[in-house]
Amino acid sequence: MALRILVIDDEKELADVTRLRLQDLGYETSVAYSGHEGVFLATTEEFDLVITDYNMPDINGEEVLDAIKIIKPNLPVAIFSIYHDDSSVISAPLRQKVIGIVKKPIENHNLTQLLQQVFLK
């Protein structure tokens, strides 16, 4: 059975492109187009990894992460953001809670590196 990944991003086109890239790599991928929808899916279905955008209008990536971890503390969560290297946005405590932070827009090599980090431990 393929590993399952949930992509959460309010930017529909970027979420769909990421989903297609992951599917091309052999992962079963679902998409949520809002933080609230993502938390619902992540906590009611089984996933091996969640990748969430940081900056979303309903709740941000850190709030998504915290909500998921209440119910599924061992589910790996990664954040992708244009602010990936801005410590005033992506704080040190947040960096310690996630499996990885990926520069947005996601490039294939960054995505592959994240997947290796998560699944080839």
Describe it for me?
By secondary structure, the protein is an alpha/beta fold. The chain has a single domain (4-119), classed as Response regulator (Rossmann fold). It is built from five helices and five strands, in the order βαβαβαβαβα. It has helices at 12-24, 35-44, 61-71, 92-97, 108-119, and strands at residues 4-8, 28-32, 49-53, 77-81, 100-103. Strands 2-1-3-4-5 form a five-stranded parallel sheet, with helices on both faces. Helix 3 links the parallel strand 3 and strand 4 (77-81). Helix 2 (35-44) packs parallel to helix 3. The two termini are 19 Å apart. The model has no long low-confidence stretch (mean pLDDT 87).
Reconstruct the topology from this structure.
Blueprint: E1 4-8, H1 12-24, E2 28-32, H2 35-44, E3 49-53, H3 61-71, E4 77-81, H4 92-97, E5 100-103, H5 108-119
Parallel strand pairs: 1-2, 1-3, 3-4, 4-5
| Largest sheet geometry | 5 strands, parallel
Overall CATH class: Alpha Beta
Helix percentage: 40-55%
Q: What's the average pLDDT?
A: 87
Cross-sheet strand order for the largest sheet: 2-1-3-4-5
Name the helix and strand elements from N-terminus to C-terminus, one letter apiece. Answer: EHEHEHEHEH
Secondary-structure content class: alpha/beta
What is the number of beta strands? Answer: 5
For CATH, the homologous superfamily is named as Response regulator
| CATH level-two architecture | 3-Layer(aba) Sandwich
> What would you report as the Rg, rounded to the nearest angstrom?
13 Å
Number of helices: 5
First-last Cα distance: 19 Å
Counting structural domains, the number is 1
Strand portion: 15-25%
| Basic shape | globular
Briefly note the CATH topology name: Rossmann fold
Give the low-confidence spans: none
